[in-house]
TrEMBL record, chain A:
Database matches in Gene3D superfamilies: NagB/RpiA/CoA transferase-like (3.40.50.10420)
Listed Pfam families: LUD_dom (PF02589)
Entry superkingdom: Bacteria
Designated name of the protein: LUD domain-containing protein
Species annotation: Micromonospora carbonacea
Stored InterPro entries: FTHF_cligase-like_sf, LUD_dom, NagB/RpiA_transferase-like
Span of domain LUD: 103-198
From TrEMBL, chain B:
Record-linked PROSITE patterns: 4FE4S_FER_1
Keyword Repeat part of the UniProt annotation: yes
Protein name: Lactate utilization protein
GO biological process: lactate metabolic process
Pfam entry (one): Fer4_8
Domain LUD: 85-295
Provenance organism: Micromonospora carbonacea
């Protein structure tokens, strides 16, 4: 008998007598769509977990990105809006770079799919302006540009907007550990610095 | 065919993995109680996490509704487990993954070992995972000549220190910074001898130590926090980014998952992702959550294997009272409020699942006869029930399991204490009142007030809320 048949058989036998009655799930918690999105709350919650938040108009994204990056070398996903990048910055576009090459740059600039105000979370879904998961993992500085209309209030709001078939990375502040005497230390293996550039609204400057 | 399966389902095999201690809980607990350093470290950890957790739970206006929804989803999941697992298998397969079934730890270890060998490598990197600790995967891989590298900082500390994890969430919490520095200086190749014991310096040393491993290892092994039957999506929550490294960088990803981790729908994650971080680390959200469905061309591992592990879970499911233990999302909140765990730490439980949930889950996975002292590793104060984000009634399961336990050594003492309390009505009333008050105090209930607290730390308290002592006694 295969392990599959064995396990499923055991489980069916375990549920045979008496068979439990499937229960309805009460969903009287706050569902998607009832809480208003609040970009100020998002900024507060991100800052609380030691991300740095920059608010600016759509047209000023490149200037802010330049300030954050200084002269550092960055990788960007192929679909990043070019006008987000300051002139003269040392950029390599990820067209399937190997991991060592990505690890060798200082930073990465991406967009995001959605952000959850209540938890201070940005979510990346691998769209062309966000790129492969590895580009936001190996460089030490992650600059994420977010439009105000991508901010939602709660976790249910975010899940309702996301496609589970895409690879999803939920990011709440920089990499952190509390494994040593519960002292929070930023930056173990992921990016040690997270900068979120929150722009005014739709239309993308 | 079906009649083959009737009768008691098999439990986790003896001699494999980490579900049984070498000695009964009372013996191990007594030694732990004498270790002042351990009690200080554990006490500091539990009180700190409790405070953080209470603060962020207080921000959520619909916390009770989320807990009720979580409990209902889990009850529904258990009632439909075979069908949901088949649905998950189909969805993962459709997305380019391969599903394997493992009846027990031996089989799961063999499946993983074969997959690693087929990939032609002799080293794998690991994300912290309770399931792989449960089955003793690291030992099995080492026996097969494959080196497993733990990449979670705490697991790395445990592995380098040739030690055992003592807490579900923070496995090295029994170690302080000076001890960790010693371990790194002794065991980490190429470490800077001037390393200080600052947590930031120690974390940086781990970062340097593991970077090359992340970039050069072609196979990773992970666990899973959730798997969505409807979509085939797997989810791992973590903080450090080591999870993302293991889930993203290798060519082959092998995920070992207890069959109870499945949830029916994508939408169900909205409940658990709100409950887990706040109950667990006391964060609004953990720094990183990764979700993937099968393989994504051009992004991440191009081979994905999901190993579905029984290892005694079907035996747990067969008990209509005890099966609730399968609802556990491993947040560790019950450990942090437990007056017994706080004093003994995790090693005394002898299983990778310590604390209140360990006291009900381990004996069920192994068969109660094989872990008979663990249902007594509790004061039955009820704090674990109050803290549990999925509302598992741990005290009632403990009482239920005690009835099945074949008279462990500790029971004589418990019974003597019960008899003494019954003969001394004032003491008995105080015990009941103390327990009830601690329940009313909510998630931070701390068990009995002194002087009874010392007594309950190493011994059974015969007062099992929500039942009264007399009901419990009458039931026996
Ligand atoms: S039993 Fe409840 S409180 Fe304990 S670890 Fe599991 S989910 Fe958390």
């Amino acid at each position: 008998m295969s392990a599959r048949d064995l396990v499923l058989g055991r489980l069916r036998a375990a549920l045979a007598a008496p068979a439990p009655t499937p229960a309805e799930t009460p969903r009287d918690y706050r569902p998607a769509g009832v809480v208003a999105a609040d970009p100020d709350l998002l900024a507060d919650r991100l800052t609380d977990y030691r991300a740095t938040v920059h608010r600016c108009a759509d047209a000023d994204v490149a200037r802010v990105v330049a300030e954050v990056l200084g002269g550092r070398r960055v990788v960007v996903p192929p679909g990043l809006p070019p006008h987000w990048l300051p002139p003269g910055v040392d950029v390599v576009v990820d067209d399937g770079l190997d991991a060592a090459r990505i690890a060798a740059v200082d930073g990465v600039v991406t967009a995001a799919a959605v952000a959850v105000a209540e938890t201070g979370t940005i979510v990346l879904d691998g769209a062309p302006d966000q790129g492969r998961r590895v580009v936001t993992l190996l460089p030490d500085v992650h600059v994420c540009v977010l439009r105000a209309d991508q901010v939602v209030a709660t976790v249910p709001d975010a899940l309702a907007r996301l496609d589970p078939r895409r690879p999803l990375t939920w990011i709440s502040g920089p990499s952190a550990t509390s494994d040593i005497e519960l002292d929070r230390v930023e930056g173990v293996h992921g990016p040690r610095n997270l900068h979120v550039v929150l722009t005014g609204g739709p239309g993308g400057g | 065919m079906t009649e083959t399966f009737l009768g008691m389902p098999a439990t986790a095999p003896p001699g494999v993995g980490h579900l049984r201690g070498d000695e009964p809980f009372p013996v191990a607990a007594r030694r732990a109680l004498a270790d002042a350093q351990l009690r200080r470290n554990v006490g500091h950890a539990t009180s700190t996490i409790r405070a953080r957790s209470a603060a962020v739970i207080g921000e959520v206006p619909d916390w009770p509704q989320l807990r009720a929804a979580a409990r209902a989803i889990k009850t529904d999941t258990m009632a439909r487990l075979p069908e949901l697992l088949e649905q998950l298998e189909t969805a993962v397969g459709r997305a380019g993954g391969t599903v394997h079934w493992a009846a027990d730890a031996v089989e799961a270890n063999r499946i993983v070992t074969d997959l690693v060998r087929a990939a032609g490598v002799d080293r794998v990197m690991k994300v912290k995972s309770m399931a792989t600790q449960e089955i003793g995967l690291n030992e099995a891989l080492a026996d097969a000549g494959i080196e497993p590298v733990e990449t979670d900082l705490a697991e790395l500390i445990v592995q380098l220190g040739d030690d055992r994890p003592s807490h579900i969430l923070v496995p090295a919490i029994h170690r302080n910074r000076a001890e960790i520095r010693e371990i790194f200086l002794r065991e980490m190749p190429g470490v800077d001898p001037a390393l200080t014991d600052e947590p930031a310096a120690l974390a940086a040393a781990a970062r340097r130590h593991l970077r090359e491993t992340f970039l050069s290892t072609r196979v990773a092994v992970s666990g899973a926090n959730f798997a969505v039957a409807e979509t085939g999506t797997l989810a791992v929550v973590e903080s450090e980014g080591n999870g993302r490294m293991c889930l993203t960088l290798p060519e082959t990803l092998i995920t070992v998952m207890g069959i109870e981790k499945v949830v029916p729908t994508w939408r169900d994650l909205e409940v658990f992702l709100q409950l887990l971080p706040r109950a667990s680390t006391g964060e609004r959200m953990n720094p990183y959550t990764s979700m993937w469905t099968g393989v994504t061309p051009g992004d991440g591992p191009q081979a994905f294997h999901l190993v579905l592990l029984d290892n005694g879970r079907s035996a747990v499911l067969a008990d209509p009272v005890g099966r609730e233990a399968l609802h556990c999302i491993r947040c560790s909140a019950c450990l942090n409020v437990c007056p017994v765990y706080e004093r003994t730490g995790g090693h005394a439980y002898g299983s990778v699942y310590p604390g209140p949930i360990g006291a009900v889950l381990s004996p069920q996975l192994t068969g109660v006869a094989d872990n008979a002292s663990l249902p007594y590793a509790s004061s039955l104060c009820g704090a674990c029930y109050d803290a549990c984000p999925v509302l598992i009634d741990i005290p009632s399961i403990l009482v239920h399991l005690r009835a099945q336990a074949p008279h462990p050594r500790g029971e004589a003492a418990a019974m003597a204490a019960a008899a003494y309390a019954m003969d001394h009505p004032a003491l008995y009333a105080a015990a009941q009142r103390g327990a009830r008050l601690s329940r009313l105090a909510g998630p931070r209930g701390r068990g009995l007030p002194p002087p009874l607290s010392g007594w309950t730390a190493s011994r059974d308290l015969p007062e099992p809320p929500p039942q009264t002592f007399r009901q419990w006694w009458a039931d026996r």
